[in-house]
Amino acid sequence: MTAKFLFVSARGIKLFLNYFKNSLMSVIALSALFLILHTAFSIGGGISRFTDSVARFDTVRIYPAEKADLQTLAKSAGDVSGVEAVTVYSGKETKEYIKQNAPAIDGIEPLPDDIFPSFLEILAAKDHQNAQSLESMSKQFREMNGVESVSYGQEWAKRLSDGKRAINAILFAAAIIFSAAGILIVYQTVSVTMNKYTEEIQVYSIVGGTEVFITMPFIVFALCIGASCVLLSLSCYKILYMTLLLSIENAAGLTLSLSWSYCLIFTVAAPTVTIISGFISANSFLRSCRWQ
Amino acid sequence: MINFERVGVIFPGNCHALRDVSLNVARGEFVYVLGRSGAGKSTLLRLIYADFMPTCGVVRIAGNDITFLPRCRIPYLRRQIGIIFQDYKLLNEKNVFDNVRMALDIYFFRKSMARERIWPLLKQLGLFELRDVEVKRLSGGEKQRVAIARALVNDPQIILADEPTGNLDSANAAAIMELLLRAQVKGAAVLMVTHDLNMPEKFPARAVHLDAGRLENA
Q1: Taking 70 as the threshold, does the pLDDT of residue A291 lie above it?
Q2: What is the pTM for the complete model shown?
């Protein structure tokens, strides 16, 4: 089995080298596509990480209904899972809070304390500081007696979540489109190469070569193209990162480097896609041959 | 070894290539298939190596009914058959050794192992000195001997020769015939298609005649 594998692999690598000029064009075209994909993932991932870091969801505000007892409410809120601390702000404290945080606003001092709303500020525990957990906590707060409204910046959370979803959708679509383009390029390259080897394929068919024997070198050939593209596109991305993206990263405070998991998935997925494409191309070429 | 029972082949356009053909060729038998161009001689050979299926009737090759032979088994049937074409079907850019070696590649023979099988055969066929020469530099007779070497290297049970002497002068044609007769003596069933009616007189053997797709004993 190993001897057979080595035999057909050697033939596939020989094919790749013999038709290097032909393969090189495909490798360059495919690597360029993959480089665009890496850049898109890098920028998209960077933006996504940036929005995560600027949008901090760590507190929830509970506005009590009229005549509600703040201390009782604070005690009940403190019992909810994921709550780290509860701070009570009476009308007077709210007035002080506004005076400290918005000194430019005039005319606050003469106003009576009771027209300022009292509220509870809930600090979420570290592992609950995200939009999903805060929404779940808010739901429990709303169900408590004496609560008028609950807020943690839902609008922002929704916008950021929608934005991230849009970025992910665009990246997913780009991955699909570029994979389809890659499949077509490899399909065509294998087809053209097989066409150049028609006579040899015909002779092998006549002397009793099986379909696997005939097609396997061309599938190895497709694998060589895929592996070369992985190497070339990741190397080009590294150069692009060092020369251009790193300076953007430093200036804009983004993290634009590709994650190890992305590189690993890409290193496995790209050659797999080229193998599948080579397999389909080689088999459909054989089917189209009259003498097969 | 080769058994045809009331075989018919109809190509698209209602073109009857073979009609009601019945033929038996035993192991170690030499049979000429004679007939004019378009009589169906090549169609008969192509049926034997399962290049296509008959429209009606039964074709059994080495015990296999080719109509029921799965597509994936066809290569294994072809390994029992050595085929020689009038146009040689050799790769001109490759040398003699590599052309013959193609028939052993399918068994994943390494070069040293292939050499052990091929060199004695090339010596026998008078091609040993030419083993490293590209096929495009050879004469017609030499090319045909290379094609025969490729057909014989696996010791096939059946040899199909489609006009093997068609492009050759009489001396080369006689040499090729001797090689085929030698293979027959070794036990292979040889089916040789030719339109040269003098061939059975020079090298006597059973002959059948194809005329417009119908087979008659000559």
Answers
A1: no
A2: 0.75
Burial B145-179 (b: 16+ CB within 10 A, else e): bbbbbbbbbbebbbbbbbbbbbebeeebbebbbeb
From A126, A152, A178, the end of a domain falls on A152
Spatial contact of A42 and A244, defined as CB atoms under 8 Å apart: no
Residues A237 and A209 in one domain: yes
Instruction: Give the Cβ contact number of residue A51 at 10 Å.
Output: 15
**Contacts for A241 with CB less than 8 Å, ≥ 6 apart:** A42, A256, A257
In a domain, B122, yes or no: yes
Which region holds residue A60: left if phi is over 0, alpha if psi is between -120 and 50, else beta? Answer: beta
User: What is the distance between the alpha carbons of residues B46 and B50, in angstroms, rounded to a whole number?
Assistant: 6
What average pLDDT does range A267-285 have in this prediction?
Answer: 93
A207/B106 Cβ within 8 A: yes
Q: Please name which of B82, B71, B10, B12 lies closest in space to residue B48, comparing C-alpha atoms.
A: B82
- Residue A97's Cβ-count burial label (10 Å; 0-12, 13-18, 19+) is middle
Q: Give me the pLDDT at residue A292, please.
A: 44
DSSP for residue B95: B
Chain B closest-CA separation from residue A24 CA (Å): 23
Checking if the pLDDT of A173 tops 80, the result is yes
Domains of chain B: total:
1
Residues of A within 8 A of B108 (CB-CB) are 3-4, 7
Reported confidence tier of residue A128, pLDDT bands at 50, 70, 90:
confident
Please give the ipTM for the structure prediction. 0.88
Q: What pLDDT score does A267 carry?
A: 93
Q: Which of residues 126-155 of B touch A (CB under 8 A)?
A: 150, 154
Closest residue of chain B to A198, computed from CA coordinates: B91
| Structural domain contains residue B132 | yes
Radius of gyration over every alpha carbon of chain B, rounded to an integer in angstroms: 17
Instruction: Name which of B75, B81, B89 is nearest A202 (Cβ-Cβ).
Output: B89
B115 domain-assigned? yes
Q: What DSSP state is assigned to residue B142?
A: H
